[in-house]
């Protein structure tokens, strides 16, 4: 998700939105001059809106405006992510085109970078919940039709989430993860042995496709493991 603009009053926001296409608007109800409710009413049927307020008294009015979500301040981070995913699913259901930034990064990039750009964690959607996964807990990822299975050191059962291998490969490629097969992405730091055509991760052995072998070798050399 990428922030394109912020405004302190409704008039400036309305002027911007008249000439610029955005995928999602986070809107505070209480703003100087015209209220956020006025702008939400103006955007009804045009642009998805998520309302923010410190008071729950606006909830009924917000329902009438058909907004995507209603957040009470202070907003917890996981609650914010749930709203982002609602927007993503709204675009999926409506069939309207969505900016690739929102489609690919709403959940994946959240929390992946700390202040010093070190890998930390990611959130993925599981059923109706957002599940936090530490990057250093991931062993490998397996393609599963339209879903992926994320295998962890800390759990005997994988986390299953709807996501493409391509998106995961792009997002995790900077954090010592590499694709070794059309169906597998592995953590380089969890590899315990390499042999012809196979990667060992403890007792688990995964196949290496010919087309990914060179990329795996290059990634290992960059880590100065051999």
Automatic annotation (TrEMBL):
Keywords: Phosphoprotein. The modification 4-aspartylphosphate is found at residue 28. Residues 126-222 form the HTH LytTR-type domain. InterPro entries: CheY-like_superfamily (IPR011006), LytR-like (IPR046947), LytTR_DNA-bd_dom (IPR007492), Sig_transdc_resp-reg_receiver (IPR001789). The keyword Phosphoprotein applies. PROSITE patterns: HTH_LYTTR, RESPONSE_REGULATORY. It comes from the Bacteria. This is Response regulator.
